[in-house]
Amino acid sequence: MAPVDQEEKTVKKTMKNRLAVAGLCFTLTAGMLTGCSGNSGKAIITLDGQKTEYAVANIMLRYSQAQMQAFYGAYLGDNLWSQYGDSTKSTMMDTLKQMLILEQHQDEYNVSLTDDDKKKIDEAAQQFMDDNDQATLKSMGATKERVARVLELYTIRNKMSNAIVADVDTNVTDDEAAQKTINYVVFSTADTTDSDGNKVVLTDDEKAALLANAQKVRDAAAGGKSMEDAVKDVDDTKTVSSTSYGDNDESYTLDEAIRNAADKLKDGEVADEVITTDAGYYVIQMKATYDPDATASKKERIINERKSSKFSEVYDAWQSAADYTQDDALLKEITFNDIYQMATEDQSETGTESTESTEDAGSTEATEAASETESAAATE
């Protein structure tokens, strides 16, 4: 029986009943539901002969839906799922595919579920069933075994992700990562759009006025005023920004003219002249020719890039060799006619205390399901 159109399903995420297994924390409950799915046991994915049920995908998607509803529902309202429904499903199916392929290769990295993992998964799955009423469970096709299967897949993916990148070189030298930081203010000369949608182009006189203001800020800052005070005296609607860059960066967001001018400066010095770019007029000041905090962040990014590259290299090869099929017609049966959303703490049932959080391989990705749903919208 198909769910009633626009039925609202309340998804409760409680702090008391937080489930920390495989980096996936959730407790779902709902109120008045009449929907159910006759597709639950059908195979939505076949991977090298192994079938994955529609309900497993549906459980994952409904959690993603509830997370996105919490993040974006207030802003996009009824447009949320007409705009992002397809991309959310696509992201979820890519995630499920990855989980299944990683599971296939777990023996190659000596990855398995420990007795403790299995115990926590069993407890979490049971708590999920206890915390949700029958209408909610039926609408998702959720059984204890299917919920446990989702948790198993998240756990294995987390462990495999860590195992694959375990031998990545994490040594990054200061020279490789060294970052400079500049303060700057920009007087933009870019075209704008008026309230009627018409393009607005600055006149030469308007650009000249902006350049004059930029020059006043430069002169004041060079004369000893702080950049903030110098800008405030000229245009209190503008703010001072900062950005970091390094000589070994593979790409730059800063215009080359700005970098060239900044490279001539010592700590605290202001560029001799206003820098003109296609975007506008820049006043720059060298904050630090070596910024330890920015350098540390850059090191972390380099390490993460190495890990990402290693993971992609391994996974892409496995994915290319996999015999994977997806039932797109069945996938279309997963719709967004009903709204799943997180409930507040006081809407949640009282009961068991929290399942103890585990510091396993997946614990560092405790919000990964939320991140994936955010990225689906952010990249649409």
Structural class: alpha+beta
Radius of gyration: 27 Å
**Terminus-to-terminus distance:** 32 Å
Largest sheet, spatial ordering of strands = 7-4-9-8
Number of helices: 12
The biggest beta sheet, please? 4 strands, antiparallel
Mean pLDDT over the residues: 83
Helix content: 40-55%
Regions with little confidence, pLDDT below 50 for 5+ residues? 1-6, 10-36, 349-380
Taken in chain order, the helices and strands follow as EEEHHHHHHEEEHHEHEEHEHEH
Shape: elongated
Q: Please give the number of β-strands.
A: 11
Which range does the strand content fall in?
Answer: 5-15%
Oligomer: single chain
Describe the structure in your own words.
The protein is an alpha+beta fold. It has 12 helices and 11 strands. The protein has a 4-stranded antiparallel β-sheet with strand order 7-4-9-8, sandwiched between helices. Strands 3-2-10 form a 3-stranded antiparallel β-sheet. Helix 2 packs across helix 5. The longest helix has 30 residues. The radius of gyration is 27 Å and the shape is elongated. The two termini are 32 Å apart. The relative contact order is 0.22.
Question: What can be said about this structure in brief?
Answer:
This protein has 380 residues and is an alpha+beta fold.
Main attributes?
380 residues; alpha+beta; four-stranded antiparallel β-sheet; three-stranded antiparallel β-sheet; 47% helix; elongated; disordered C terminus
